[in-house]
């Protein structure tokens, strides 16, 4: 790779604004495009509304995105506008975590969590996705569940078995994977230390226009044909890097009297290495990659 040229910080960037920062309260997650503070935006879909057909029709995507997701964004912004500061200056994750336990803030929580869940959900699907992942995540799935087939069975069962509206999630917690299901707007992002990798929306609005009450058919097709393992792998790898022990500078050496001659010849310890930096992800990259993949298929 060529060395990067030095940056002249006195000039504005030529190619547009700086890449967005990761979610402030979940540094291993990519920026989901809804902005850092209120009023929150409806993020762009990372693919065309027709891209997930025939598993999810363009009609379902249209109502799910333009009516449900957009509705949560509008209601959240309206609720925040009526709140005293500093609420409007907090991040979406801080707002949903802060309102999760307060019954009087249920509407704020429900809309904040549904905005976050849907902003995340769209990236969990991709045309030509699904099936067995590769790389580090495949090894972690084998370690946790024994095999991809067992993971698939548990993920489908979690989504199908959620009574009523909710979500099924693949998460990483510490050094292990875990499958969770949540009711209504509840989300693993409420729990610091629990990092979602993938989700399946099992509210009826996610599938009823396409398969009516056959939730199991919808979930099975999503797992086999749409799950975006490349998105999940990027989060998983950033999470693994963040788990690495941070480098700490050695304290200054005290001045000691000379040691007597060594009588053993133990090898010197390996030098400490700094962990690699956590990359800043841009949803634009994901969208560009999806569009490039689509273009190649045409
Ligand atoms: Mn939904």
Explain what the structure shows.
This protein has 298 residues and is mostly helical. It has a domain at 58-243 and 281-297: Iron/manganese superoxide dismutase, C-terminal domain (minor pseudopilin epsh fold, 3-Layer(bab) Sandwich). Helix content is 40%, strand content 8%. The protein has nine helices and three strands, in the order αααααβββαααα. It has a three-stranded antiparallel β-sheet. Helix 1 (58-81) runs antiparallel to helix 3 (106-123), helix 2 (92-99) packs across helix 3 and helix 5 packs antiparallel against helix 7 (215-225). It is globular, with a radius of gyration of 23 Å. The two termini are 31 Å apart. The site of manganese (II) ion has 7 residues, from helix 1.
SSE run = HHHHHEEEHHHH
The main sheet comes to:
3 strands, antiparallel
CATH topology of one domain: minor pseudopilin epsh fold
Uncertain stretches of 5 or more adjacent residues: 1-19, 278-287
Q: Which structural class best describes the helix and strand composition?
A: mainly alpha
The percentage helix is 40-55%
What is the number of helices? 9
CATH class of one domain: Alpha Beta
> What is the end-to-end distance?
31 Å
Strands of the biggest beta sheet: in what spatial order?
A: 2-1-3
Put the structure in a nutshell.
By secondary structure, this protein is mainly α. It has 9 helices and 3 strands; from the N terminus they run H-H-H-H-H-E-E-E-H-H-H-H.
